[in-house]
Design brief:
Blueprint (H helix, E strand, L loop, with lengths): L6 E5 L7 H11 L3 E6 L2 H6 L9 H6 L2 E3 L5 H10 L3 E6 L19 H22 L3 E11 L10 H21 L5 E7 L5 H4 L4 H11 L10 H12 L10 E4 L23
Parallel strand pairs: 1-2, 1-4, 2-3, 4-5, 5-6, 6-7
Helix pairs in contact: 1-9, 4-5, 5-6
The chain binds nicotinamide-adenine-dinucleotide.
Nicotinamide-adenine-dinucleotide binds next to helix 1, strand 5 and helix 7.
């Protein structure tokens, strides 16, 4: 799906449950070289180093750089150091769960909303502004989003950031077409990760998803389906695709109401 031997930057590795890790492993399985970014050394120690299903030698073999996406100079230094990159995955988001998520949408914590907007949306433009010189023509940038065509309980301001992120994907696709750079996003169904665990009511959301997807949905197993779609968009098989939001969600986002009794998918093995 990707060009073997080429280098891909996967931004937003927290631990072995991160979407970034599943995507990185998939790129490697297709012969790509992966460089990750980790937010800062404290997070590496607190989360990545404690990843339960990551052997010591696997951890030591990870090629990564530190990069806080809100610090322009850190992003600039990252792309100054990297020579050529064939693709970038933006797997980064943040919202203060106490103010931006939860049972009440309204908040006076404007600084929190703006920080969430900076990290979860604007940072994609920061990345492209600095990355464009090191991206080879034909290269691809993929972000991660969550269904913006419906309003979900407690997801509040993150839903707003994701809608803005999708608009930015289209704007960046238009801007960087002339550079031969594609920009797309994968809209994933709910998956079990650290960020997800901070979303109030996430369990209910996943149950809802499982019940309402024509294909069914599994918060653990379907991470691989999302990683596969990201890898497809990174590679040459998606050469004429840009500015698109590709839903990998078991079909849930198209639904005009819950599945009727006769529509429920058969349970897959191991579920
Ligand atoms: N898990 C889900 O259900 C789900 C569904 C759809 C989309 N997504 C999206 O997938 C992406 C990855 O999230 P995840 O679920 O793997 O969770 P995660 O917690 O593993 O990853 C989130 C990452 O964002 C990074 N981050 C936050 N602030 C940052 C900053 N200032 N600088 C640099 N990095 C920063 C964190 O360090 C972390 O590595 C996010 O965009 C998320 O919204 C997740």
């Amino acid at each position: 799906m990707i060009d073997a031997g080429k280098t891909y930057l996967v931004m937003g590795l927290l631990d072995s449950e991160s979407m970034a890790f599943a995507i990185g492993k998939t790129i490697q399985a297709f012969g790509g070289k992966v460089i990750y970014t980790v937010q800062n050394p404290a997070y590496k120690k607190r989360f990545l180093d404690r990843s339960q299903d990551l052997a010591e030698n696997e951890l030591a073999a990870l090629d990564f750089r530190y990069c806080d996406i809100t610090r322009d100079q850190e992003v600039a230094a990252l792309f100054d150091e990297l020579r050529t990159v064939s693709g970038i995955v933006h797997s980064i988001a943040y919202a203060n769960p106490h103010t931006c998520l939860g049972q009440e949408l309204h908040t006076d914590a404007i600084a929190d909303i703006l920080l969430s907007h900076h990290i979860s949306c604007v940072s994609l433009a920061t990345v492209l502004r600095h990355a464009a010189p090191v991206l080879t023509p034909g290269s691809s940038v993929v972000a991660l989003t969550f269904d913006t065509s419906h309003v979900y309980p407690q997801y509040n301001w993150m839903g707003v950031q994701k809608a803005a992120l999708e608009a930015l994907v289209r704007a960046l696709a238009r801007r960087h077409g002339r550079d031969g750079i594609r920009v797309n996003a994968v809209s994933a169904g709910p998956l079990w990760t650290k960020a997800a665990s901070k979303i109030p009511g996430f369990d209910e959301l996943t149950r809802l998803w499982d019940r309402n997807s024509p294909l069914g949905w599994n918060v653990h197993q379907d991470k691989q389906a999302v990683a596969d779609a990201v890898t497809f968009l990174l590679g040459p098989r998606a050469a004429r695709i840009t500015g698109q939001i590709l839903a990998v969600d078991g079909g849930a986002a198209i639904m005009g109401g819950p599945l009727m009794d006769h529509e429920h998918p058969g349970r897959r093995d191991g579920r």
